[in-house]
Write the structure tokens for this entry.
Amino acid sequence: MAKQSKTAISPTREQDYPAWYQEVIKASDMAENSPVRGCMVIKPWGYAIWENIMQQMDVLFKETGVKNAYFPLFIPLSYLEKEAEHVEGFAKECAVVTHHRLEPDGKGGLKPAGELAEPLIVRPTSETIIGESMARWTTSYRDLPLLLNQWANVVRWEMRTRMFLRTSEFLWQEGHTAHATAREAKERTMQMLDVYTKFVQECLAMPVIRGRKTVAERFPGADDTTCIEAMMQDKRALQAGTSHFLGQNFAKSSEIKFQNEEGQEAYAWTTSWGTSTRMIGGIIMVHSDDDGLVLPPRIAPAHAVIMPILKKGDDNREVMESARGLKDVLEGKLYHGRKINIEIDDRDTGGARGWDWVKKGVPVRIELGPRDIEQNMVSVARRDQAVNEKQSINREEFISEFTNILDNIQDTLFNRAIAFRKENTFEIDDKKAFYKIYQKARGYKNGAFVMAHWCGSQDCESTIKDHLSVTIRCIPFDSPVEEGSCICCGNSSSRRVLFAKAY
Amino acid sequence: MAKQSKTAISPTREQDYPAWYQEVIKASDMAENSPVRGCMVIKPWGYAIWENIMQQMDVLFKETGVKNAYFPLFIPLSYLEKEAEHVEGFAKECAVVTHHRLEPDGKGGLKPAGELAEPLIVRPTSETIIGESMARWTTSYRDLPLLLNQWANVVRWEMRTRMFLRTSEFLWQEGHTAHATAREAKERTMQMLDVYTKFVQECLAMPVIRGRKTVAERFPGADDTTCIEAMMQDKRALQAGTSHFLGQNFAKSSEIKFQNEEGQEAYAWTTSWGTSTRMIGGIIMVHSDDDGLVLPPRIAPAHAVIMPILKKGDDNREVMESARGLKDVLEGKLYHGRKINIEIDDRDTGGARGWDWVKKGVPVRIELGPRDIEQNMVSVARRDQAVNEKQSINREEFISEFTNILDNIQDTLFNRAIAFRKENTFEIDDKKAFYKIYQKARGYKNGAFVMAHWCGSQDCESTIKDHLSVTIRCIPFDSPVEEGSCICCGNSSSRRVLFAKAY
């Protein structure tokens, strides 16, 4: 492989973090901007990550009794009008379908025709239309709980977009459940937050802080919004998932009523919870480095690549057979219930070949030449280690250790992210110090997670937001009760909350 | 269970086939019409079938090297204008997005605002936008073949809709491949038709006739359209999948060019192929009966249901434990690579409980009472047999035989469908007889697949279509060369083609 002095990605994180992010995506061939405003094309390497996310989350959902369903892409305008009464500012930026036909425009082109009596909105969420179904499906307490989830595309018109993090169309899942009692719905809210936590920490190797949102940051219509927040390498927070307890608010606006065991009519208690392709943005920003994407083995589209060392003019049959044999035996194993996938790259592109796979973030790179075969060895490099670090390992030992190596990489990434977050999280009680840490923050440099006291007033919350673009990401569940004074106004406070700049 | 004289579905197939179809869907809780015009809600039982279809087809696709990707929901109007030059009548009925915002209308409602400079079309297919990407991704022969597939929702504005068979929004997969040579592209066309054939016959237990479309019935822009056609119980044909060889036509309109091994610029050769939620309509119409849905075990959301016989007031713990034990041991097995899923229904609704599962089409129904447990037996009913037919089987024997029973049901359904098609397929050489068979055809009664000679002229083809609403479904690959005269004009013909009324 080529020299290590130059990084594979330019600019580096330190030079220009947002540009680095775009370059990592480009160099790994995950996605690209499409000719359609605000939308992206998710290329096979990126989509395979999403498939792995969907498959593994879906198993966890179903273990809790959730069932998938599919609801229409379009929402009648009147549905949003109903909601608009309750929710100021909701769903204003959206794609509006007004016609159902194209006709020749007389100038060799086409024009919209067949105006609809009622415009249709391309779903920004399916909340209202799922609510309408839930209302029809719920008559008795025997119909509850109703545990639904949908994997789908949604559209929110965005003016400034960023691949995976903010695009007009994105892929997500939204869960909606209805229950006979508040207790059950609250338990479900936490159960799904637990599922998200387990998945994001174990599969994406992304440590998260669990907590609840402040009233100001709550989902509109929720009685309680719980979330998981992760630290990116620029020390900003990414909300990786949310789970809402909606009380009876949503049931009242959607008329989700049932006859309870005592024969009385009652409104259901509901929850909703969601995650999206944003998580892929999180994976990139938590793990990747100046040489490109770094993928946790649990969601990597390929667990390893085998690069046979072929000689021009030679009969390379033996090397290729040896490579295919290695691929077959490795793919015979399961890794956390998922089939192992090994790529063979027999291109003759010299050092560029190895760098391609570094940039794609494949956990393990294997080189295999005639000499390795003779000695029954394989040359192994790990994406969590320096690019030029290679280890020669006995072939059988490597095979038997392969899933352990993957687990070890997974753990390393998680522990590294934990350590990074720890290094960049501070308890601050001095207002000047608090301001200083965020005023200096630019891109990759500085910034932090700050645990500080807050009196609970929305005034203090919005003052800090206005001054520093810093928000209370959550009130962490594990933040201990302690005496303190608000970082903004100095009034008394009983616990610290998590402040950060956010995506 | 209740008496068998009355059928669970009313009307029966014979009384009113289209109404029977809707009732089967309703009674099985698969789907329902949504408040959004032309769209349906796919409920958990129906969506689980689609999930099983997707998972199993996806494995077959990937085995051939195909990779999934995701392209934008929206297509700029100009893309369709480009195509409109080539393709008369294409994509006229579609959902047109003209605005990107909702604003208060001053009357307490909302109105579309923020008119787009260029209208966007909700994809009726992703062909043009995938073509645009393929053109960008293809520079050298080394980039080929490009083997892409997308699972997504598409929209075609339909005036008359029918759940699963024809809805404005539906779910599908579309594959698009580009190759350096015509031979490779032709091979891929057939390879994907083979994949469809294998899947539809083996997993959906739906026998198909493979062949190519006539020029008139060809996909616009294709040099060759191959298809699989299945017979429904009303003897009409359902096209269950198509695979197109597009020659260089699509590459020319999308500018998919590459430098070949000789260093010359050349257009790629492309294919496309698709299947959709229509297949679920096919499953219903091929296998179901007057008692409701009948599901092939390979795609059933649940392979069996256990109905413990519980006594009011009794301590039913032992029965429930026995049921759960049976569920656990059965779910410990795999069935054709898929986890077995067993439902336990412990509702106390008497005979209605059993009928619910009959109507849902679950392959195996198991009753388990205190007496069965005492004798170490289970009472087993199969959905491919009469509803009141039950068999008492030793529990261990049943467990060890379970996947064989499922295979046996699968085979029975397939063989039954083959036999039905055979009974209702005729070779006809007499024009009067040909007309008679279709003129009488109404609903479930009469109608047929007819293998008849055709001279190859579009005039004859369209005459028959105009007179009888009967089309040439395909020129079957296995139709032998033989001398004959055209069923319409009497001119000479060298092979029979498949005629039928179609969905």
Notes: Residues 203 and 298 of chain A are 5 Å apart (CA to CA).
